[in-house]
């Protein structure tokens, strides 16, 4: 696991918390912020996943 995967997962969790808090307090701006955080976190995690896949494939071919 690399830092992009870890930070992406953490960002997704913060986003879920903000989304839930926004929904519970009827705060659409906070809910939207949570959605955006989750998307950004997923993107960062995806980048980390790709880096791991490349690293793994280069290890197997050497």
UniProtKB/TrEMBL annotation:
Record domain CsbD-like: where: 4-56
The organism's place on the tree of life at top rank: Bacteria
One Pfam family hit: CsbD
Chain residue ranges for the region called Disordered: 1-62
Ranges annotated as biased composition (Basic and acidic residues): 1-17, 28-62
Protein family (similarity comment): Belongs to the UPF0337 (CsbD) family.
Listed name of the protein: CsbD-like
Annotated organism of origin: Paraburkholderia lycopersici
């Amino acid at each position: 696991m690399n830092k992009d995967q870890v930070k992406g997962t953490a960002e997704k969790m913060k986003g879920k918390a903000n989304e839930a808090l926004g929904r519970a307090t009827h705060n659409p701006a906070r809910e939207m912020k949570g959605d955006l955080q989750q998307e950004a976190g997923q993107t960062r995690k995806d980048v980390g996943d790709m880096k791991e896949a490349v690293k793994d494939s280069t290890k197997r071919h050497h």
